[in-house]
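Q: Mind making up any chain with structure tokens?
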Amino acid sequence: MELCYETDRLMLRLLHEGAAPEVLNFYQKNRAVFEDIEPDRPENFYTLEYQTTLLRCEFQMAVKRNALRFWIFEKENPDQVIGTVSFQNIVRSVYQNCHIGYKFDEQYWHRGYALESIRKAIEVILPEFGLHRIEAFVLPENEPSIRLLERLGFQSEGICRSCIYLHSSWTDHLRYSFINP
């Protein structure tokens, strides 16, 4: 597996702990947007120490093929994180599946970057990790994410009731899947 992949406009990179300042900036800049749709974070999440440790752990998980997170950059601006695409909960054996997650800097929405980078990330992870199925969970009211998943070829499998603990309560999410052709 390579540490950097490219599309026409973007770079998808695995980052080492030395990139913690850029990652921290990405999270701090988008904190209000992300906190509405993600589980509560510990307060120290927004520290350089936390992000350094997290990047170190994520890199080791990628090496062990237990998870994979790509950080997204514009080719024109290779020092500023604009998004991330991750594959978590990789399960082997008879399942060969995982969960996908993604988020982008609000400033870069509606430019096709999510579609472009997720498409490339899927092209990489399916053969590299030998996966058969990718699952995505999305809040029912998140119509832009639903449209994105459908454009990528994910198919709706219905509602997953009370599946994610979000802001002090269990929430329903729509379940989508992408099957390796």
Q: What stands out?
A: DSSP finds five helices and eight strands in the chain. The beta strands are 4-6, 10-13, 68-74, 77-91, 97-104, 133-138, 155-166, 169-179. The longest strand covers residues 77-91.
